[in-house]
């Protein structure tokens, strides 16, 4: 039990050290990701927005028609 507590305390200390080393609250979450990953995420986001707009338009036409 004591070993688990020591390991948890060490993990908490490591997280605190990392937070101090890089102030992540100053940067968006995806700044540290590679460019290709950010492009894939942006493309996926825009595809989702476009499909939502198309679906909304289809429902609007269905309601009008």
Protein described:
The protein has a domain at about 35-65. Helix content is about 75%, strand content about 0%. The protein is built from two helices and no strands. It has helices spanning about 1-20, 35-65. The model has no long low-confidence stretch (mean pLDDT about 80). Keywords: Membrane, Transmembrane, Transmembrane helix.
Outline:
The chain has 65 residues and is an all-alpha fold. Helix content is 77%, strand content 0%.
Radius of gyration: 22 Å
Mean pLDDT: 79
Query: Assembly type of the shown chains?
Result: single chain
* Secondary structure: number of strands: 0
Backbone structural class = mainly alpha
What distance lies between the first and last C-alpha atoms, to the nearest angstrom? 68 Å
Low-confidence stretches: none
How would you sum up the major sheet?
none
- In terms of DSSP E residues, the strand content is under 5%
Total number of helices: 2
Global shape: elongated
Encode the helix/strand succession as letters.
Answer: HH
How much helix is in the residues? over 70%
